[in-house]
User: Which sequence fits this backbone?
């Protein structure tokens, strides 16, 4: 750390150098775009912010609809635009990238969004993975309680400090990648609250998961912005134009809502941001979901200041001050709720002894908006410290209403749309993946924008409330990876589908963990392990036998030897960039993977010995099923499902391949099957059952990275008919329990490796 | 605005056992919501009426979908559609097959047929149990009956094996099956005072001691029918009343044993022959199906009512029956000790169960 100071001063030229390095590696790629949202520590050097683009297209204009050329060209355009957005932010890559479409009749909205980022050239350059580094990465799999865990925290961090980039790992990624004197948009910069050397923005929006190395104060929470806009029914070009015209305003409003809600929760960064715009015949729906956190490296957010344009009327003033008070109260309450108590920060400019909100002289504008009107307002108002909401504006009234009508989350619950909630580490094995679908019919056709907004907001809020109520037996618990999908299947219908996993955690140990410095948990490494293991298998097949659990019968072996090819394909789908890179490092990795497979073998032994997840050969499971008199529950393998990449308290010992299935179900006896709800309920239950059966057939006992990519539901009650299409996917895996030390949070064990090891042996 | 569709599906099927009970009770969704509200469900998790309705609907739908699996509980454990933890499966099954003894008392001994099913609305009115609930319980009886009727081996074990019920519940079902099979008369006004548990106890006694399976556990035969041979042999007991000497001897022995021990001694002495005759006649008649059906009404009319009229206490009856049974062993010319014990053992415990002071 001693050298840190000097490096800090040379940050400018170093940054340029770094950029050159990385650029050269990335420039060979047409699209330096990663769909991954989780990265190994040090991979992200800087994060610029969210880049997104939308394009409205007419599908009937494709000359050759069967050929992909036109569509490819559309997407190419969009990716180019994303790339140039990232460039404008001083970044050379986009991470956490995703594309989506919304189609209504012949109009199609193509959307893409990602996070502009600067990546570590080490990972990009050829031949960069030195032996030491990769060894570390292999051994960095989280294995709390495992005897023989050979890693130490200090060792690892020193490795990462050894990179060219001098930024400390825990705050480097929030440092601005762009030139502070030539900023792409107006933003208020301050020195990083962590290292005090480099500049950081006041607010950061990203589409990626919270990096493991990020330091977070308190806990995070799900933040949603919801918006509904009516539009006239139209055809073709006219329709496309009116949609195009609406889009920027919707984006702006969603953004403002997100910003307000973020401030209301006293947080300063959003992760996993996903903005979905769905088009219907006579309306557009916008839903933005993200997980808000307080990044310790960023400045504390200012409060929200309500401003009236004409502060002459007395009752009006009173009205404003009531709202102001409510907002202030809510902020205070939220700080308590999310445990956000940032350490007293040393201001460069000596602060006045006034409350938080007023002390922070940060800017009040989000990064991507033009700030003309509000800066004027600031002048008139005089309190330059807070985020100002102008109440005369009808939209603002709406904003404030929605701000304050968001129901507080019930005690004992947390929610986020990222992999895990920052600040919670000690998960128990309690797990419940679920899908909930709701379709609302708007009975009144002549609804105003406000009316629609209210309905849409209530719909989402009520859905969340229902989820909390349903899962109340799991308290304390966190809903992770809350994934909302909205659609307008028909005129006057709004469909919302949610898939998430509820995971309970241990309150007692949580408190202990809270006291410890909050650092990232192990899910990053978990993903890393995935790639490493696979790569090892694909490069050296003679490594296979060692990975075999000797206790597992013959037919199970057949499965496992077949598995690598499946793995390979799925992996290639997911992150070909890495694969390519890693294959070049086959030599290095072989050394690592021997180690891995030895461990695999060891663990596989315990698989076969534990009754829970025995990968039964097909023949035997059939015979089991035929013996009717067995006590209930015994013959069926319990298969866990989760949208996350890991299962808490367990170790994934084998990836068995991707499962990607489409189901179409049709009924001509809708009423007899319990109406639309009965039909869809049993269909989804059957989809789950089929997925579980597939996993079990592969010898697995869990499905990770589960997602329901498509759920299209159509009905015709008059004809007593309904149809539904569902597409689900995920990775089948074998996991084992982390023995009896399950309850020990990874955080604690990783911090006291030796201590726990001793406990384990005694 | 109205909710067109609303579903929640968990990888592990979520089942709220309180809501399950409401569903079993045959409540409608809106009634169930009311009950839940009264029970303070709204205080949890900041729920509102809408949330509660949605949850209740969803749960009811889940139960409805699982119902067909509950009809053959062994399948619940091996089906793949719903991932239900074993613990919950047990509760689901047990609760589904639990019944109201008031209801069971009503249909006890009746033929489990369509005709009886039609009468369920009357029973529903009389007992205050919802018709839906009555139907479920009736169908459960019928289902269990149909499955075990033709099976060999011990009745209780058969029920347990096929329906995965707890021991107590399986015993109750055994009683119901037994009664339905033999069609014992239980509906007479004089029998109204007897509860389901009284009858279930008697059924247990009959199953344990008077059926074929009872005597020879190796015999792979049905537990449902009384042993014909035994019933035939009961005719031999007639000697106890037909042979005047033996009867007097019997009376003397019993009186000697009871003198000074019971308050109703005098009445007993007077009535001894009547009581003894009642019990022995009952035994000798059991070869006729009709009389088997009237077993309980006969016991009440011929023995229990006279005793109750004379204000016997349970303790006194116990003493009397014990000595009455034992005294027969001391009769030198009485040769049917084995039959006598088998008969009197059951009769004694039935009478004691049925005798409400």
Assistant:
């Amino acid at each position: 750390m001693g050298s840190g100071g000097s490096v800090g001063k040379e940050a400018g030229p170093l940054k340029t150098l770094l950029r050159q390095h990385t650029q050269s590696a990335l420039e060979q790629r047409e699209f330096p775009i990663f769909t991954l949202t989780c990265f190994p520590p040090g991979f992200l050097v800087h994060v610029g912010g969210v880049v997104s683009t939308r394009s409205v297209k007419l599908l009937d204009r494709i000359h050759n609809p069967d050929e992909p050329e036109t569509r490819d060209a559309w997407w190419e355009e969009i990716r180019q635009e994303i790339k140039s957005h990232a460039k404008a932010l001083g970044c050379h890559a986009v991470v956490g990238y995703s594309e989506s479409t919304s189609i209504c009749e012949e109009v199609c909205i193509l959307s893409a969004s990602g996070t502009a980022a600067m990546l570590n050239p080490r990972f990009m350059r050829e031949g960069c993975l030195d032996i030491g580094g990769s060894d570390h990465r292999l051994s960095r799999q989280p294995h709390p309680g495992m005897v023989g865990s050979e890693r130490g925290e200090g060792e690892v961090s020193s490795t990462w400090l050894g990179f060219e980039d001098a930024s400390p790992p825990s705050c480097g990624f929030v440092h601005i990648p762009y030139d502070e004197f030539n900023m792409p948009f107006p933003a208020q910069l301050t020195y990083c609250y962590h290292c005090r050397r480099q500049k950081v923005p006041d607010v950061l929006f990203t589409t990626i998961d919270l990096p493991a190395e990020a330091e977070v104060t308190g806990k995070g929470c799900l933040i949603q912005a919801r918006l509904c806009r009516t539009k006239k029914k139209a055809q073709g070009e006219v329709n496309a134009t009116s949609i195009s015209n609406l889009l920027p305003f919707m984006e702006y409003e969603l953004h403002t809502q997100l910003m307000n809600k973020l401030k209301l929760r006293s947080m300063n960064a959003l992760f996993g941001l996903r903005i979905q715009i769905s088009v219907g015949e006579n309306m557009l729906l916008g839903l933005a979901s993200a997980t808000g956190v307080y990044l310790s490296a960023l400045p504390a957010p200012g409060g929200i200041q309500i401003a009236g344009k004409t502060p002459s009327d007395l009752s009006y003033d009173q009205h404003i001050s009531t709202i102001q008070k409510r907002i202030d109260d809510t902020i205070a309450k939220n700080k308590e709720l999310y445990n956000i108590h940032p350490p007293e920060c040393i201001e460069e400019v000596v602060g006045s002894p006034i409350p938080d909100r007023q002390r922070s002289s940060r800017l009040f504008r989000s990064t991507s908006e033009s700030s003309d009107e509000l800066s004027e307002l600031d002048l008139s108002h005089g309190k330059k410290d807070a985020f100002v909401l102008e109440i005369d504006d009808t939209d603002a009234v709406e904003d404030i209403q929605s701000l304050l009508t968001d129901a507080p989350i019930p005690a004992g619950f947390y929610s986020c749309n990222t992999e895990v909630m920052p600040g919670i580490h000690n998960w128990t094995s309690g797990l419940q993946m679920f899908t909930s679908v709701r379709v609302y019919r708007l009975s009144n056709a002549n609804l105003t924008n406000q009316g629609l907004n209210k309905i849409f907001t209530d719909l989402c809020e009520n859905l969340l409330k229902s989820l909390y109520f349903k899962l109340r037996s799991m308290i304390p618990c966190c809903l992770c990876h809350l994934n909302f999908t909205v659609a307008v299947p028909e005129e006057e219908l709004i469909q919302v589908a949610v898939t998430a996993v509820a995971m309970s955690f241990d309150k007692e140990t949580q408190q202990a963990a809270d006291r410890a410095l909050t650092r990232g948990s192990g899910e990053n490494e978990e993903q890393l392990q995935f790639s490493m293991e696979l790569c090892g298998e694909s490069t050296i097949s003679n490594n296979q036998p060692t990975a075999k659990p000797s206790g597992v019968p013959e037919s199970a072996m057949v499965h496992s030897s077949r598995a690598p090819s499946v793995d390979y394909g799925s992996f290639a789908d997911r992150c070909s960039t890495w694969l390519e890179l890693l294959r070049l490092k086959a030599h290095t990795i072989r050394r690592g993977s021997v180690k891995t497979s030895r461990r695999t073998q060891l663990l596989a032994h315990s698989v076969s010995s534990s009754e829970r997840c025995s990968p039964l050969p097909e023949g035997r499971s059939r015979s089991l099923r035929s013996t009717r008199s067995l006590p209930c529950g015994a013959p069926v393998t319990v298969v866990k499902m989760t949208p996350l990449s890991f299962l808490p308290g367990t170790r994934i010992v084998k990836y068995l391949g991707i499962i990607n299935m489409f189901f179409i179900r049709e009924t001509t006896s809708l009423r007899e099957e319990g109406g639309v709800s009965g039909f869809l309920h049993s269909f989804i239950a059957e989809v789950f059952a089929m997925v579980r059966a597939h996993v079990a057939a592969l010898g697995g006992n869990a499905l990770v990275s589960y997602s329901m990519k498509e759920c299209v539901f159509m009905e015709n009650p008059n004809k007593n008919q309904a149809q539904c299409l569902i597409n689900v996917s995920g990775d089948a895996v074998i996991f084992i329990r982390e023995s009896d030390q399950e309850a020990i949070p990874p955080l604690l064990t990783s911090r006291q490796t030796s201590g726990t090891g001793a406990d384990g042996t005694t | 605005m109205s909710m067109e569709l609303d579903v929640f599906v968990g990888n592990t099927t979520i089942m709220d056992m309180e809501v399950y009970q409401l569903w079993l009770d045959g409540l409608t969704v809106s009634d169930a919501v009311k009950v839940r509200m009264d029970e303070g469900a709204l205080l949890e998790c900041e729920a509102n009426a809408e949330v509660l309705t949605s949850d209740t609907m969803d749960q009811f739908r889940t139960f409805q979908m699982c119902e067909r699996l509950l009809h053959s509980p062994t399948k619940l454990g091996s089906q793949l559609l719903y991932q239900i933890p074993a613990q919950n499966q047990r509760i689901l099954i047990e609760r589904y097959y639990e019944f109201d003894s008031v209801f069971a008392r009503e249909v006890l001994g009746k033929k489990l047929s369509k005709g009886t099913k039609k009468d369920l609305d009357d029973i529903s009115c009389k007992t205050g149990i919802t018709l839906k609930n009555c139907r479920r319980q009736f169908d459960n009886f019928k289902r269990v009956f149909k499955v075990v009727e033709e099976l060999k081996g011990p009745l209780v074990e058969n029920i347990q094996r096929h329906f995965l019920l707890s021991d107590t519940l399986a015993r109750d079902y055994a009683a119901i099956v037994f009664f339905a099979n033999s069609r014992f008369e239980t509906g007479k006004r004089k029998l109204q005072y007897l509860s389901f548990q009284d009858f279930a106890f008697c059924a247990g006694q009959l199953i344990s001691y008077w059926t074929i399976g009872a005597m020879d556990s190796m015999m792979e035969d049905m537990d449902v029918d009384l042993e014909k041979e035994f019933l035939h042999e009961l005719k031999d007991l007639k000697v106890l009343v037909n042979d005047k000497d033996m009867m007097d001897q019997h009376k003397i022995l019993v009186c000697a044993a009871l003198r000074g021990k019971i308050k109703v001694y005098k009445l007993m002495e007077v009535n001894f022959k009547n009581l003894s005759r009642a019990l022995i006649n009952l035994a000798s008649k059991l070869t006729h199906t009709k009389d088997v059906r009237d077993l309980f009404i006969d016991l009440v009319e011929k023995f229990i009512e006279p005793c109750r009229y004379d204000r016997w206490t349970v303790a006194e009856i116990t003493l009397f029956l014990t000595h009455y049974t034992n005294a027969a062993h001391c009769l030198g010319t009485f040769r049917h000790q084995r039959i006598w014990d088998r008969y009197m053992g059951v009769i004694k415990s039935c009478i004691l169960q049925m005798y409400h002071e």
Remarks:
- Chain A has a mean pLDDT of 70.
